[in-house]
Amino acid sequence: EKYGDQIAQCVAAGKKYGIEVHPWKVNWNLGNAPADFIEKMRAEKRLLVNSKGEEGKWLCASNPLNQQLEIDTMLEVARNYDVDGIHFDYIRYPGGDGCFCDGCRERFEKRLGHKVENWPRDCGTVLKEEWMQFRCDNITTVVRTVSEQAHKLKPNLKVSAAVFGDYPGCKYGVGQDWVYWCQQHYLDFVCPMDYTDSDTRF
Q: What's the distance, Cα to Cα, between the start and end of the chain in Å?
């Protein structure tokens, strides 16, 4: 309301100066979201829950409504603006502790075909591989769907993501299987998060 359509202005400037414009979206992370939106998500039981039962400022990635929200907001930009690409950021879990909400348990047990006896402890022990794949698949669902639909809308659009550099550790730590996304051609390029001033580490 104050500054007008920022994406439209950015695209116009990019066209003028020959610069590609790839708007990026913060996915899942509600750290800077308005308080009323976070409360709405809490009331609808759509927030991530850790192993202690505590809610965080992060959307549950297995919740179908949350997945659709991420998909819709990414595609809204592709559909409504003459952008060169769209970029995923925070397309992952915040860490290894979550999400253990009631919805995750229900969806995970449905996938397994049986109850999890010791929830959530078994997810880190006897069911660790199945649980890690469940988490990866929740994130991949959004990446795949956005990529397929965005490329149908605009075949030359570039879909990209900010990714962790410690592959395959990031599969297990944050549910981000970006090598698989590249192998499946869901992404046109990746931006490894290489924040360091160490030449060796870089």
A: 42
The amino acid sitting at 22 is H
What's the rounded Cα separation, in Å, for the pair 49 and 122?
Answer: 16
User: Which conformational region is residue 88 in: left (phi greater than 0), alpha (psi within -120 to 50 degrees), or beta?
Assistant: beta
pTM comes to 0.95
Contacts of 177 (CB under 8 A, 6+ apart): 136, 139, 140, 168, 170, 171
* pLDDT, tens digit (0-9, with 9 covering 90-100), for 85-119: 999 999 999 999 999 999 999 999 999 999 999 99
Q: Give yes or no for a contact between 84 and 41, defined as CB atoms under 8 angstroms apart.
A: no
CB 92 within 8 A of CB 175: yes
153 in Cβ contact with 194 (< 8 Å): no
Query: Would you tell me how many other CB atoms lie within 10 Å of the CB of residue 191?
Result: 15
CA gap 83, 23 in Å, rounded? 8
Q: How far apart are CA 80 and CA 59, in angstroms?
A: 25
Look at residue 35 in the predicted model and tell me its pLDDT: 97
Answer yes or no: are the C-beta atoms of 102 and 150 closer than 8 Å: no
CA 95 to chain centre: 13
Q: What is the pLDDT of residues 13-25, one digit of tens each?
A: 999 999 999 999 9
Contact 38, 30 (CB under 8 A): yes
